[in-house]
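Support reply, case 0932

Customer input (verbatim):
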Amino acid sequence: MLAHSVLMHMTNLVSTPEPLIRLDQVSRRFTLPDGRTLDAVRPTSLEIAAGDVFGLVGKSGAGKSTLLRLINLLERPDAGRVFVGGRELTALSRGELREARQGIGMIFQQFNLLQNANVFDNVAFPLRIRQGAHGRRTKAQIDARVRECLALVGISEKIDSHPAQLSGGQKQRVAIARALASAPAVLLCDEPTSALDAETTTELLATLRDINARIGVTIVIVTHELAVVNALCRRVAVVEDGRIAERFDVAETGVLRQTGLGRELVRLRADARQAAEPSGELQRPEAAYA
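Our regenerated output:
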């Protein structure tokens, strides 16, 4: 039922051909306390196809999180335009933008759960405050959607627990369920694994892969961990100094990358392939660029 709801939402949201997300020469500048300015995002364009899993990778302070937040206008660009599903978000009124954001879910590094609410009420929260396509949802509809989302992320047994009773990985699963409650076409992920240990990170990435495969939601993930990109993403953009320095298919081979992080990702994938192959063979020189 959730998959059907997401597909219906995507059908309504996408009125033009791909890309689903398009940033057209967006930029964002901040004024620092001492009066200086910081160009967090310099004029940048980006396109992301429907159903993709797209990574934004970069070092701390590169501007990747600000770029992500421009997609749903949590940060409004100083210049440029933002399109999601062919609709220009930067041209919408406050009410229209609030409605459009129902098609864009988001999860954060620190989970952002309501500490005094149990898991059910955390996931139900966006359903209670937002109008559905045919008005307010009934209690039965909310109950069914919450249980559906919790089952999708594999945490149904914690429905009555409070955040303080959950592990970090469980909290992030609840946050994902909440972000999916409104059946969004897009899921934005801002460093969702940085507070998790390696084993929990692996499990969470498997959950995100499964969600993408089962319901087709487009995932855009910000991370500084190349292993996350290698495990999850189909395409990636390397962000440096507020700009996209390069972008490419993660599985693409035979191309010498332009950035240090791009070359590191190539080496990481080559090492992973070599570890998976039978031992005893010497690596070919060109394999470093495979």
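We compared this against your earlier run and they match. Two observations from our side: The CA atoms of residues 189 and 221 lie 5 Å apart. The first strand starts at residue 21 and ends at 31. Please reopen the case if you see a mismatch on your end.
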